[in-house]
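CO-FOLDING WORKSHEET

Operator: S.A.
Ligand of interest: NAP
Run index: 258
Mode: holo prediction, single chain
Checklist:
[x] sequence pasted
[x] SMILES validated
[ ] output reviewed
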Amino acid sequence: MPNRTLGIIGGTGWLGRAIADAVLESGFIAADCLLISNRSGSSTFGPDVRVLADNQALVELSDVVVLSIRPEQFRELQIDARGKRLISLMAGVPAATISAATGAQVVVRAMPNAAVEIRQSFTPWYNAGELSEQDREWVQRLFECVGSADEVPNEDCIDYLSALSGTGPAFPAMLYRALVESAVVAGIPEAIAQRAAHGVVVGGGQLLASRDPLQMIDALMAYRGVTAAALQSMADQHLDAIVGQAVQAGAAVARRGM
Ligand SMILES: NC(=O)c1ccc[n+]([C@@H]2O[C@H](COP(=O)([O-])OP(=O)(O)OC[C@H]3O[C@@H](n4cnc5c(N)ncnc54)[C@H](OP(=O)(O)O)[C@@H]3O)[C@@H](O)[C@H]2O)c1
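OUTPUT RECEIVED:
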């Protein structure tokens, strides 16, 4: 695939910087084909990466532009991206709004998560414009630099998944807190409760990297022991409904827009 120039507006932020580092490290983009902009124009990239304080200059020098600024910062952004392929990482900003504000006819919305840092993000993406097969493959490969990725069939999938996979470590962190707090109430010393919960959330999560989670539940239920009793209690209290409502609450914010 021919060398494309990638510009990342907000490429010094949490997500933008991790993506920039990943595309460079994987060799997907050469340093002299990467441009970064932010408001200060300062960064810690190596000398070959061009860092600009002028977003329009970045747009003009780039084949593909990634928008990695916060939704509220988008209101202040003034770029003319006509004729460019634009990839927005912003939650809650519809493709039509981005297209109207920037003039870009090819707008992709993508939703990575904080695990870009460790190249373990799942990134759904949606193409709201005319995208060639070659461009599709390029977008997929871009997000595979930070983990796995899937093109989704409609824009609502992005709003829903913003509240599911876009939340990254939030759900396991919430489970960790619930496990620690309930163990402390049950009389377990706090430091021990924290280590125990860490083992569940982090150690257990790593084990699931090589196991099918649903088969794991079936296998543990089949023991009919301590774990099965705890899992059955969660099922009886409709954990799936609680989780489903939580994701819908987040998705409603994404659909309403920010
Ligand atoms: N973090 C996550 O886990 C996550 C997950 C899914 C989606 N997202 C989405 O990803 C986007 C970025 O999030 P983030 O967490 O990476 O935010 P962040 O760390 O705050 O980064 C924002 C970046 O944008 C730059 N910036 C702000 N206004 C700008 C402007 N007018 N022109 C150029 N650069 C500008 C900032 O640098 P200066 O201040 O120096 O200008 C900074 O580098 C958000 O839209 C968010 O919805 C984030």
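REVIEW:
The chain has two domains: 6-152, 170-256.
Strands lie at 6-9, 34-37, 50-52, 64-67, 85-88, 106-110, 121-127, 147-151.
[x] output reviewed
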